[in-house]
Specification:
single chain; mainly alpha; 4 helices
Length: 87
């Protein structure tokens, strides 16, 4: 009579064990995912991978232009310093 009141069905023991095993495996995957997410080492690895990927995406022409600009600025600064010292 309790079965008809709650709508519960008799459960096969093998099904119950299989359900417990599936739940246990899902819980293990969840715990692994959480530990991976909070691991300082993995966070550093992800950050390094992200920087490497961003560097790979930089256009070589832009890098060349930036390097040329730095060389010009350093060269002009050096020339100005030499002129000041000679005075």
């Amino acid at each position: 009579m309790a079965d008809s009141d709650t709508g519960a069905k008799p459960v096969d023991q093998a099904e119950l064990v299989a359900d417990i095993d599936r739940t246990r495996a899902e819980l293990a995957r969840t715990i692994d995912a959480i530990s991976d997410r909070v691991s300082p080492r993995r966070n550093v690895e992800r950050a390094v991978d992200d920087v490497r990927e961003r560097v790979r995406q930089i256009d070589p022409v832009v890098v060349g232009a930036a390097v040329a600009a730095v060389v010009v600025v350093v060269g002009v600064s050096a020339l100005l310093l030499l002129r000041r010292r000679r005075r």
